Fold this sequence. Notes:
By secondary structure, this protein is of the alpha+beta class. The protein is built from one helix and three strands; from the N terminus they run αβββ.
Amino acid sequence: MKLLLISILSVLISACTTMSKNDPDDIKLLPVAQVPWEQLNPARGDKSPKAGTLWGDRKANVQTGFLVQFVD
């Protein structure tokens, strides 16, 4: 639980530092349940951590923000 809170705080701090560059109309809140999750390493199957991209494109060389769900 603490790791999740730290991750969320890190994302929020990162978002706030770049917020001045963004149009306020482009900013939206998204519940974690609606974040699109995908496996970071599909070859590992169910053992792969998942990434939920919040903005940008993790697979491209652009600014990106995402959450990670680790497997126990």
